[in-house]
């Protein structure tokens, strides 16, 4: 499985609080069958310096984690790096935002604070695509007005990410069924933050998907993710 939305880097956002928790999260992820896990710490940009500061903090956190993983010989998924970028303003105004894409791919994970002006979001997303950036909308299932967003974004080359936890409840599966009625590309990710309420649950979600959405399961958990990570800028 491919997990393109996870908060396992230590001491950088509201995800892993320290290296030990990071290792626990990645170990559990590996045990559940995740082969690639992308670090997507929260990134909020309101000026150019915010981008430079974020990239420096991400590099520092990743270096600390990689050193500990090598030191202890911990089995873990292949690690890649991106960001969960808050789209609360036109980030096209900041030079160098391509550095927030997932490694060498053109894909960028984005989220919204509150769904207020979907037309503005659509304009900003379209401007990103003109730069060669391909947006992935994080946890589309969490927005009460996701129907409005999807309709507004029609015609823009967008991938929608669904949180794995949705597969483990009846209401969540109803939301997924509704989403799948739209002719869009989706990918399921853990959005894991810790080892408590927001831990990795990719394996249980995949098993549910195989039962409830058998024709879509492999695309959602494996194939669409592979396509994302194989495409380069």
Report on the structure:
The chain has 233 residues and is of the alpha/beta class. The protein has a single domain (2-230), classed as Alpha-Beta Barrel (TIM Barrel), CATH 3.20.20. The protein is built from seven helices and nine strands, in the order βαββαβββαβαβαβαα. The longest helix is centred in the N-terminal third of the chain and has 25 residues, at 48-72. The two termini are 23 Å apart.
Radius of gyration: 17 Å
How can the largest sheet be summarized?
Answer: 6 strands, parallel
CATH topology: TIM Barrel
What is the domain total for the residues?
Answer: 1
**Helical element count?**
7
Structural class: alpha/beta
Tally the beta strands: 9
CATH architecture heading: Alpha-Beta Barrel
Q: Secondary-structure element order, as H and E?
A: EHEEHEEEHEHEHEHH
User: What's the CATH first level?
Assistant: Alpha Beta
Provide mean pLDDT, rounded. Answer: 96
Question: For the largest beta sheet, what order do the strands appear in spatially?
Answer: 3-5-6-7-8-9
Shape: globular
Please report which band the strand proportion falls in: under 5%, 5-15%, 15-25%, 25-35%, 35-45% or over 45%: 15-25%
Query: Which percent range fits the helix content?
Result: 40-55%
Classified in CATH, the superfamily is Metal-dependent hydrolases
